[in-house]
Design brief:
457 residues; Rossmann fold; 5-stranded parallel beta sheet; 16 strands; 43% helix; flat
């Protein structure tokens, strides 16, 4: 007899018994309540490829309480189960957009649900057999493409992966920051070590110390056994602090000694533990802006931003959109083969993409679900009337592409040269005078700084 595949059911309390009874015919359903304290060890956590997040009776509970469970069960593919009109609940919308691969409304179409569970079980199997494959499908493709912008990013990430210096990855939501962090880890000498990712946006302030540093047995009432913290777990590998710009100043302070000395102390212990890890941080906003607004500590920033990577928005790498769209469609289509019409592709290329690759994935997924034809049209994507409001698509001439490439080349070379104009000019194989002229032409922000420093060498 074939062994049933495990399926996690995460809810507030046991209900929907009829649906669960149906699922138990094909799946081994393992139930957890997100109202219960998160156990120190989750049995068979690594087997949790797939789960149902039941949000039909969301309690009056802070979202981070639920997110702690979701983070602990990462990288499970979650299928959301929601009431008929979930859009009015901001918490539900947040959980769906951040954690769910798909969602179903009541009453559930069981055939569609079973089909989707089978699909994402297959996706999880592919992911588990592909080292470093992240939760979001688009992350697997985020660094693909042949645009100059993304080729420069790949080159920069390869160079940075060879060092132990901390790396700060900045990019808008949905640009592939997690993919960039994993790229650095996979290409580094630490690739065989652990890859520990902490979602700072979902880290409750009250649990910061215990989550980051761990605790000794008896350190507090429910500390029945010692537990290493997330920082300690990264020893010998890479530590990724995702969404560091969402961390409160008080939480930032807790990190400072670790960032300065590489040492931590578990709660209830006076013994310092040295942690040999490489720190990678991601942020959606430039941290200097947050420092100016007194929302981020400068002493923490200076220990995180040794090497900085700025990921391009999707609107700044439009020539990659056809390839990315086709790759995402091939991932989701299953047995229903579809292709983009010429009009749909034009709309994809000209769209503003405020949500970047995540939005591209979601719109294509929507089209795949709604379209019964072989050809996906613009209407299936929901893009009509949402064209790019920056440079219109018909102004993307050879000259505009050249200007964009020159701006990116300046930023890239200045980053490699640590803002030394002479070295940047050498990298670009042009004279310093030519580089200064280009910087003047595009009002490059680093131009005045370089002149102020008297870079005449």
């Amino acid at each position: 007899m074939t062994e049933k595949r495990p399926l996690v059911w995460l809810s507030a309390a046991p209900h929907n018994t009829e649906l669960k009874a149906l699922l138990t015919q094909q799946w081994k359903v393992v139930e957890h309540s997100y109202l219960s304290p998160l156990p120190i060890v989750l049995p068979n956590r690594k087997k949790a490829r797939l789960g149902i997040l039941d949000m039909t009776r969301l309690p009056d509970l802070d979202t981070p309480g639920i997110e702690a469970w979701l983070e602990a069960l990462n990288p499970t593919y979650w299928i959301g189960l929601v009431d008929e009109k979930p859009a009015t609940d901001s918490r539900t919308a947040h959980l769906i957009s951040r954690y769910c691969a798909d969602f179903h409304t009541l009453p559930v179409d069981t055939l569609r649900l079973e089909s989707m569970l089978g699909h994402f079980w297959g996706m999880a199997a592919i992911r588990d057999n592909t080292p470093g494959w992240p939760n979001d499908d688009y992350q697997a493709f985020a660094l693909q493409g042949d645009s100059q912008a993304i080729r420069q990013i790949r080159d920069l990430l390869r160079r940075f992966s060879e060092t132990k210096e901390p790396v700060l990855i900045i990019g808008e939501s949905g640009t592939g920051k997690d993919a960039a962090a994993r790229f650095i880890h996979r290409h580094s000498p630490r690739a065989s070590g652990p890859f520990i990712q902490i979602n700072c946006a979902a880290l409750p302030e009250s649990l910061t110390q215990s989550e980051l540093f761990g605790y000794e047995k008896g350190a507090f009432t429910h500390a029945l056994q010692a537990r290493p913290g997330r920082l300690e777990q990264a020893d010998g590998g890479s530590l990724v602090l995702s969404s560091i710009d969402e961390l409160l100043p008080e939480q930032q302070s807790a990190l400072l000694r670790f960032l300065q000395e590489g040492k931590i102390e578990r709660i209830g212990s006076n013994h310092s533990i040295y942690v040999d890890s490489r720190t990678i941080t991601t942020a959606a906003h430039p941290l200097q802006e947050l420092i100016d607004r007194q929302r981020f500590r400068s002493d923490v920033f200076y220990r995180l931003g040794g090497l900085e990577v700025r990921l391009p928005a999707l609107r700044d790498r439009r020539e990659d959109i056809p390839h990315l769209a086709k790759a995402l469609i091939s991932t989701h289509q299953g047995t229903r083969h579809r292709q983009l019409s010429k009009s749909a592709l034009q709309h994809l290329v000209s769209h503003a993409w405020p949500g970047n690759l995540r939005e591209l994935q979601n719109r294509l997924r929507r089209a795949m679900l709604l379209c019964d034809r072989k050809s996906i049209e613009s209407a299936d994507l929901g893009l009509e009337g949402n064209e790019w409001q920056g440079d219109a698509i018909d102004t993307l001439t050879l000259e505009s592409f050249r200007a964009q490439a020159e701006r990116q080349a300046i930023s890239y070379s200045m980053t490699l040269a640590l803002h030394n104009v002479s070295e940047a000019a050498r990298i670009l194989q042009i004279s310093r005078v030519s580089l200064y002229r280009l910087m003047d032409k595009y009002n490059h922000a680093q131009h005045s700084a370089a002149r102020h420093k008297g870079d005449l060498s």
